[in-house]
Amino acid sequence: MKKNQLFITAAALAAAALIVGQSLAYFTDNDEVTNTFTVGDLDIEETEPEWDDETDGKNLTPGSVKYKNPTVKNVTSAKNGEEPGYVRMVVEVKDGSGNAVTDPDTLSLIWKTVRYDQSYNGNSTTKGTATGLTEDKIPGYTSAEIEKFPMVNPLFSKDDTRSTASRYVWNYMGSQKDGLLKIGEEATLFTNVVIPADWNQSHLEKVGSFILEISAEAIQSKGFANQTEAFKALDGEIRSGTIQTRK
Question: What pTM did the predictor assign?
């Protein structure tokens, strides 16, 4: 019996030794994947390169034509890739004291002074390059002549759901109708403020002193199915005070 026990013990030790030898023959490997994440950004800039608030809006008379070209540009850095945005511009009409104009006749006259001339391609150093509405032209333009020009750039569409009588919201649609303003792209809402040459004293008294307060608002396009969804989110951000509009 003892011999059998010894034999069994020796066999077990031999099996253990065999297992140790096999483990030394395994192949080993190691690999690692590192992912880098960058956070995008959206930055817009609103300018009016043709407008001097100290002089251009003073003492307007029938026939006055002034270049006023509120322009929004996507100035986001491209270091993290393309970052297009949905953009809208808001024009609010206020009286000389900064209160919203409510009289419908006054509003009608004021809105008629805002025009877009698609031939205009000037900047702060090359005024007078428009073939349509030219600044300081004598004797100016009649109401009928002014009406031939649209109020704003056709690349913008009025948002009736967000507009009021004294506050017009214009959504940028773009030439592709996708609403995207890409990095480096810019869009001008309108080009001129024009006082009709056939207005008389009663028209001027009705209009009085007024303010066109213009702001630009934008939100990233990524993460939204379309412009409509994006602007709903933007409205919520503005109401919560998370972001400020650009003026």
Answer: 0.81
